[in-house]
UniProtKB/TrEMBL annotation:
Main location: membrane
Entries under Pfam families matching the protein: ABC_tran (PF00005)
Record-level GO cellular component terms: ATP-binding cassette (ABC) transporter complex
Listed InterPro entries: AAA+_ATPase, ABC_transporter-like_ATP-bd, ABC_transpr_CbiO/EcfA_su, ECF_ABC_transporter_ATP-bd, P-loop_NTPase
Family: Belongs to the ABC transporter superfamily.
Span of domain ABC transporter: 2-235
Keyword annotations: ATP-binding, Cell membrane, Membrane, Nucleotide-binding, Translocase, Transport
Localization annotation: Cell membrane
Protein name in the entry: ABC transporter domain-containing protein
GO molecular function, one term: ATP binding
SMART domains the record matches: AAA
PROSITE patterns linked to this entry: ABC_TRANSPORTER_2
């Protein structure tokens, strides 16, 4: 699980990006972190794999205090998908890229082979194993980066803007991966600006504003916060806006909920 207590982070420039954040996330939870640009989402996410260390307060992942472990050690606990795949990819072939994590974590050969094959299948990269990642499109590189994270089979996954730059099928891959991982008791925390993706695929939404948590609840609860949400720079999902425009007293946030309400009218 993830346990963050009174986390404060100040950049060397003097900007206080996180100003007393406390958060618990249980195994199997799917949590989306939202908020306007500069709210502190990426800064918070980067504390989970130890790239950033608290100025004050603490961060525990799966029982480890991140202040007491190196980034390399924390890689066994937290898989981190970078917003920009080009910050993450470095190998000469797709296969090498995806195999690097499990090899580096010292997994035995058969487990490694199984994880790599599965990650390539789940991101529709089978057949592209020998291609150089830079010969691929941005949407495909995004899938390679996701496959590399999935293959590490960590208890916690942090996905920074997983749908930005992904095509429609890529978004479906991410959604399927999130649901499958949570089903296996993995904790998934995603930073996202994509409210439709967020409403459809996450159990819980945490809203950050000015380095603090201003809302934490189910998509239904959070997206009904109206004025508070607007103040945090968040627009509700399209279906919710549509159901409000239709004058429904209980707006729907997902396609299934929308169809159910339409059918029951
Ligand atoms: N490397 C850095 N050095 C100094 N200040 C930074 C740095 N990175 C981010 N900041 C500042 O910290 C605050 C939080 O930024 P952060 O990137 O965590 O926000 P965010 O919610 O992830 O935004 P976005 O949605 O644009 O990615 C902002 O004021 C930002 O300008």
């Amino acid at each position: 699980m993830i346990r963050i207590d009174s986390l404060v982070y100040r950049y060397p420039t003097g900007v206080t990006a996180l100003d007393g954040v406390s958060l618990r996330v249980e195994p199997g939870e799917r949590v989306a972190l939202i908020g306007r640009n500069g709210a502190g989402k990426t800064t918070l996410a980067r504390h989970l794999n130890g790239i950033l260390r608290p100025t004050a307060g603490s961060v525990h992942v799966d029982g480890w205090d991140t202040a007491e472990h190196t980034v390399a050690e924390l890689a066994a606990k937290v898989g981190y998908l970078f917003q920009n795949p080009d910050e993450q990819l470095f190998a000469r072939t797709v296969a090498e890229e995806v195999a690097f994590g499990p090899r580096n974590l010292g997994y035995p050969g058969d487990r490694r082979a199984r994880l790599v094959r599965r990650a390539l299948e789940d991101t529709r990269l089978t057949g592209l194993e020998e291609v150089h990642p830079y010969q691929l499109s941005l949407a495909e590189r995004k899938r390679v980066a996701l496959a590399a994270v999935l293959a590490m089979d960590t208890p916690i996954l942090v996905l920074d803007e997983p749908t930005t730059g992904a095509d429609h099928a890529g978004v479906r891959d991410v959604a399927a991966a999130v649901s499958e991982l949570a089903g296996r008791g993995r904790t998934v925390l995603a930073v996202t600006h994509d409210m439709d993706f967020c409403a459809e695929n996450f159990d819980r939404i945490v809203v950050l504003a000015g380095g603090r948590i201003v809302r934490d609840g189910s998509p239904d609860e959070v997206f009904r916060a109206g004025a508070d949400l607007a103040q945090a720079g968040v627009e509700p999902p399209q279906l919710m806006r549509l159901s409000e425009a239709l004058g429904w007293s209980r707006p729907a946030t997902t396609v299934d909920a929308f169809v159910d309400r339409l059918a029951s009218r």
